[in-house]
Write a structure and sequence with these properties.
This protein is α+β, with helices and mostly antiparallel strands. It has helices at 2-15, 34-39, 52-60, 90-100; strands at residues 40-44, 65-72, 79-87, 104-105, 108-109, 111-114. Strand 2 and strand 3 (79-87) form a beta hairpin. It is globular and about 35 Å long.
Length: 116
């Protein structure tokens, strides 16, 4: 799945994001350091069957990841459709937003933005 996603990323990026989306998942405010705000991303509208490994591979294709987490229900293990990525380099976080925001994965169009 990830190989197909990565291979279609260039087409998606050249065509631009498709459609607009409303936020999915929690609204999180951080009062931490400004450095984190330049590297921390929230990703919404992820496919239900996406694995942690696929999530990490997709975002790791952009740059070095400090940490990433695909959020799941604690009881059922079912994906809640959102996750977090923290890059080492702020430039990679910018690149991830510019490259992956609006990418269509299965029936979902993901939204990638800075964590607020």
């Amino acid at each position: 799945m990830v190989t197909q996603i990565i291979s279609t990323m260039e087409t998606q990026v050249s065509n631009g994001p498709s459609g607009t989306s409303l936020p999915n998942g929690p609204v999180i405010s951080t009062n931490g350091s400004t450095d984190d705000s330049k590297t921390n991303l929230i990703v919404n509208y992820l496919p239900q069957n996406m694995t942690q490994e696929e999530f990490k591979s997709l975002f790791g294709s952009i740059g070095e990841i400090e940490s990433c987490k695909l959020v799941r229900d604690k009881i059922t293990g079912q994906s809640l459709g959102y996750g977090f990525v923290n890059y080492v380099d702020p430039n990679d976080a910018d690149k991830a937003i510019n490259t992956l925001n609006g990418l269509k994965l299965q029936t979902k169009t993901i939204k990638v933005s800075f964590l607020r």
